[in-house]
Amino acid sequence: MKRLLVMAIAAIALTACSSTGNPEFRAIDYGPGIQPIPGSITYGGKTRARYANMPAGYTFSHEFYGSFGSRVEERYRVLNDGSLDIYSRRITPINVSGGR
């Protein structure tokens, strides 16, 4: 009985470690497939018409505060069809200890 309990706990612990987690906990993200988080321009979709007049390949940055109070900077690239792609994200924690 103890062996079964230990094996069940180990299985639960190992499956919990393989989850992808919240993308807002990663400090720096680069590359394709970065998922938007609340505050991202692409969060919720519907950005194609707004940025369709920008030239393909145009890049710009967007800064906002994440849900945990961290400063988030994202770099976007305009694709050929006018949609946006997040190609980098940097999350900087806010220092609340007085700055020293």
UniProtKB/TrEMBL annotation:
<keyword id="KW-0732">Signal</keyword>
<feature type="signal peptide">
    <location>
        <begin position="1"/>
        <end position="18"/>
    </location>
</feature>
<protein>
    <recommendedName>
        <fullName>Transmembrane protein</fullName>
    </recommendedName>
</protein>
